[in-house]
Design a protein that fits this description.
Distance between the termini: 50 Å
Radius of gyration: 26 Å
Strand order of the largest sheet: 1-4-3-2-5-6
Helix content: 40-55%
Structural class: alpha+beta
Shape: globular
């Protein structure tokens, strides 16, 4: 099944045009794939645009589909995608070329406009409808429920919009920055394909442990007369025990989020709240980090570059693919458990050793550099520990309060207020926390002033920039407080992401199994590239550990 959209051509002339494209490939094609849904990524068809006004949509059952694949496999043709990692993962089974590609989603974000095609294409004078709008118009929930011509038209408009957007953005692209991002796409695709080895025995041990916990907490709750998996029943029990709970946004039932439960102080309600939290944690670990890997030899993730701050993000790849988000397996959640019960321990090297290379206090170093804070810079100049320095400044101690000091430091990076920090450190004494925030502002005056200035300039201009000049729009739709937090955090986290991505381009790619925010997980013993700690103006030491398992 082949559809053509563009100039008025009869079927014969359309076929002739397609034959000419196949015989004499154009230098540039804009490409888009259509799938059933984001969860079910079964391909319905693939579209290509040869200009802003001419495009083809071809399904697998059409005789021209193999010709289309040959075009997409041709390394001499530049393939322009909007959010390339998504389409490359969808079309991986066809072995399309992923080296000679461009990405308008990245180019748009680097130009300070939205990475969403329907919003970005407007700048190029093209109207692109969102999938949600098209589905709503026809009253369906999946693309395969739409008429074939509607799907084809949607895909072709997306291709034409991508083509137009690419032509619009090319003259304004920050070339060096864009080339760094674009070069990362094939790197991330290679890493996504490699995966990381799983230890089936350790997975079984973890499953047994967390299943016991899950059933134990569920049985305890049942004996108390409620189902911990039911928000309604949890809310009812807590209210009966004297806890005051807010309503959900819909006002239809009481809010029982983890944040709400962790703040409960009514004596009779605390055991109910804590039991529910432990049940949820066991259930989460099982359903998200253990059961999906049972029976698999390797674990995979699909790596993207579509995060607001430019961080590398991970996702699943759809219901029929094994990819899960490996980047959200934090080591903090189970750090107090024995080593053999930690979720990360089920991931192992192929060659006996797993090298973990972490950036040391990267975001704090970036804050020191960008703000020019004298005390912070002095600490880092002598290879000191910034969290220990903060502990001394806020508590006058050396050791017992370092963890809390670390929480304070990162709270300052994220713009948290005293109430939020109090939640993080597990105290109800907000006044005490507010006083420590005051002491922090006195200890690091330039960093504090930089934070205040970022809020003013970010809100006024509508965007902030990383050290490398990446423009990040401030989301105003979530309220002033959220916007202010983003003004502070985006430049720091964005700069950390910029630096980290540059290190990946010089890292031994064959051994690299997973990039996790500021950590590189590699197979075997890895020689750290010379000069990598000074790849940016900010000196960031790399701490290397060699282990038998991911820790």
């Amino acid at each position: 099944m082949k559809f053509y959209f563009g100039a008025e051509l009869n079927v014969e002339r359309q076929s002739a045009l397609w034959r000419r494209i196949v015989a004499e490939p154009p230098p540039v094609l804009a490409v888009d794939s259509e799938t059933i849904s984001l969860k079910d990524r079964t391909i319905l068809g693939v579209g290509v645009a040869i200009s802003q006004h001419e495009s083809f949509y071809i399904t697998e059952d059409d005789s021209g589909f193999n010709d289309l694949l040959n075009l997409l496999r041709n390394p001499l043709i530049t393939k322009v995608y909007h959010n390339a990692p998504y389409d490359l993962r969808v079309m991986r089974k066809y072995q399309v070329d992923y080296a000679n590609i461009e990405d308008t989603s990245i180019a748009a974000r680097l130009s300070g406009i939205s990475g969403m095609l329907e919003e970005a294409a407007v700048w190029a004078g093209v109207e692109v409808r969102s999938v949600a709008n098209v589905l709503a118009e026809y009253g369906v929930t999946r693309m395969d429920q739409l008429p074939n011509k509607v799907v084809a038209r949607k895909c072709c408009v997306d291709c034409e919009g991508t083509f137009a957007l690419w032509e619009y953005l090319q003259p304004t692209i920050h070339s060096d920055y864009y080339q760094t991002e674009r070069t990362l796409i094939p790197v991330l695709e290679i890493i996504s394909q490699q995966g990381i080895k799983l230890d089936a025995q350790r997975n079984a041990e973890l499953a047994a442990h967390y299943t016991r916990d899950y059933l134990y907490y569920k049985t305890l709750a049942s004996g108390m007369g409620f189902n911990p998996g039911s928000g309604f029943e949890v809310g009812y029990m807590l209210s009966e025990a004297g806890a005051f709970l807010p309503f959900t946004e819909s006002k239809k039932q009481l809010a029982t989020t983890d944040s709400v439960l962790s703040k409960i102080t009514a004596a009779k309600a605390i055991p109910i709240a804590q039991l529910t939290l432990m049940y949820r944690k066991a259930q989460k670990q099982l359903s998200t980090f253990i059961t999906p890997y049972t029976g698999l030899d390797r674990a995979y993730t699909t790596l993207h570059l579509n995060a607001a701050t430019g961080r590398i993000s991970g996702t699943s790849a759809g219901q029929d693919d094994p990819d899960r988000n490996l980047l959200n397996i934090t080591k903090r959640a189970d750090r107090l458990l024995p080593a053999h019960l930690r979720i990360r321990s089920q991931f192992i090297p192929d060659d006996g050793v797993l090298t973990q290379a972490d950036d040391s206090q990267a975001e704090m170093r970036i804050l020191a550099y960008m703000s020019g804070d004298v005390r912070m810079l002095a600490v880092f100049a002598v290879r000191g520990d910034i969290h220990s320095d903060t502990e001394r400044a806020l508590w006058g101690t050396d050791g017992p309060n370092r963890l809390i000091a670390k929480i304070f430091n990162y709270a300052m990076l994220y713009g948290a207020d005293a109430s939020t920090i109090a939640d993080g450190v597990g105290t109800a004494d907000v006044d005490m926390v507010a006083d420590r925030v005051r002491l922090w502002s006195l200890a690091y005056p330039q960093a504090w002033a930089w934070r205040q200035d970022q809020i003013i300039t970010g809100i006024k201009s509508g965007y902030v920039e990383t050290l490398y000049g990446r423009k990040m729009p401030i989301p105003m739709e979530f309220g002033e407080k959220h916007a202010a937090n983003c003004c502070i955090n985006y430049p720091i986290q964005g700069t950390a992401a910029d630096i980290f991505k540059r290190t990946l381009l010089v890292w031994p790619l064959r051994e690299l199994l997973l990039p996790v925010h500021d950590e590189r997980v590699s197979n075997g013993v890895v020689k750290i590239p010379t000069g990598i700690e000074d790849i940016s103006p900010v000196h960031i030491p790399i701490e290397v550990n060699e282990n038998a398992r991911w820790q």
